Amino acid sequence: MLKILMTMILALSLFACVPITPESQKTDLQRADIHYQMAMANLQAKNITGALKELLLSVELDPENESIQIALAQTYQRKKAYPQAEKHYLIALDLSDNDPRYQNNLASLYLNMQEWDKAIYYFDLAAHNLLYVDTAVSITGKGYAYFKKGDNQTALGNFNEAIELAPRYASPYYFKSQIYRDMGNIDKQKLSLQRAIQIEPKFLEPRYQLALILAQENAIAEAIEQLEAIIDYSPGTAMAFKAEDLLQTLSVTRQ
Questions:
Q1: What is the DSSP code string of 123-185?
Q2: Helix or strand (DSSP H, E) at 22
């Protein structure tokens, strides 16, 4: 009996040392955070559907969390579920008291939706917020929206303003090249593409567009150099396949 009693006491003391935290004792906010962290891990692994499932569970448990709302909006945007993305961007804006980062994100969504005026409005709000650090990005986005509306002069003004603010930001140079292409000004198009590539060597679209111009100028060796750089930087991508197709054409022409 003494041995049995001692065994029972030992067992009870061991159980007393183990904290009991069953799932039922976790708060909604704790569970929401767990689902949010799992969503972030899924996004890191490029599992967008898995992330969406976790975020939907998270937002149900903690609907007033702006980080969850903005992550859900961005995930919907990546899934091309634009109306749902808009809904959650607007909620995040309201919860954050109009954070300019979220204004910029919502504006980018409106570019996807081809809602150019709405994009301009929210890019402009973000750009004029003195606490926003990526002003040049918003101004570039606004310029792109004007470009898509067909207002090339206003677009160029925005791109030049962005370049003044951030001379090492490649995107406005590339978008300027598109305007010059539409205007038929090949020299300025080419110069803008070269500057974009100089700033960001892995910016593939400018390289491809420059290769097309060089091919038209019969500068085949230089065009091939641009195409080979695209393939080296992004093997197996859609852009690399485009470059390979053009490279094959130019190689045949060169023979």
A1: HHHHHT-TT-S-HHHHHHHHHHHHHHHT-HHHHHHHHHHHHHH-TT--HHHHHHHHHHHHHT-
A2: none
Residue count (the chain):
255
A 10 A CB-CB count for 221 gives 9
Residue 83 CB: number of other CB atoms within 10 A? Answer: 8
| CA dist., res. 153 & res. 116, Å (int) | 16
Listed residue (161, 154, 112, 114) closest to 138, CA to CA: 161
Token pair listed for 126 = 């973000």
State the Cα–Cα distance between residues 87 and 14, nearest whole angstrom. 51
Q: pLDDT tens digits, residue range 31-70?
A: 999 999 999 999 999 999 999 999 999 999 999 999 999 9
Q: What is the DSSP string of 64-121?
A: T-HHHHHHHHHHHHHTT-HHHHHHHHHHHHHHTTS-HHHHHHHHHHHHHTT-HHHHHH
In the structure encoding, which two tokens stand for residue 214, read together? 């060089």
And the tokens for 215?
Answer: 């091919």
pTM of the entire predicted model: 0.85
Tokens encoding 148: 């898509």
Region of residue 154 (left: phi > 0; alpha: psi -120 to 50; beta: else) = alpha
